[in-house]
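Lecture notes, unit on binding sites. The following record was shown on slide 14. It pairs a sequence with iron/sulfur cluster.
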Amino acid sequence: MDKILEQLPQMAKEKHAENKKFFGKLKKRPPKNLDYLMQELHHEEFERTDCLECANCCKTTGPLFTKADIERISKFFRQKPQAFIDDYLRIDEENDYVLQSLPCPFLGADNYCSIYDVRPKACREFPHTDRKKFQQISNLTLKNVAICPAAFNIVEAMKAKINLR
Ligand code: SF4
Ligand code: SF4
């Protein structure tokens, strides 16, 4: 896995133009069964992928924290929401709460998440490859393929499976 993660940014860079073109077409003419197909590709990929061997998302890009996330996690720590914010979060350029530092402070050396049951919604949903109307998050996916080997493989499988000529 380490080797794949090392090579992933370069592999994603090489595929960027091709992926951009594909997603441009997908947005204009999404196949009728796209939601179903994405569920299938997502599940096939995550049967093969062990996130505990990777954790690259937790190491290199943090989630954003919604108000509900902050309330739930601070309660877990028996902290006031503001104390949790002061300890771990900052506001980014887009006015969202994000982690002050990376890797995520809740990631263990064994790649387990110490707040797994109450983790942010964005962590539960990453890399968003099973979401409905997947064509609407193509810009995000273009970035995620450089971070997440599973997302990279799913996009490659999409290109092989969906004919958009
Ligand atoms: S909260 Fe947990 S799942 Fe989310 S980035 Fe941190 S370690 Fe990873
Ligand atoms: S979601 Fe992707 S980047 Fe995160 S641990 Fe799993 S394979 Fe790695």
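Take-home: The longest helix spans residues 2-28.
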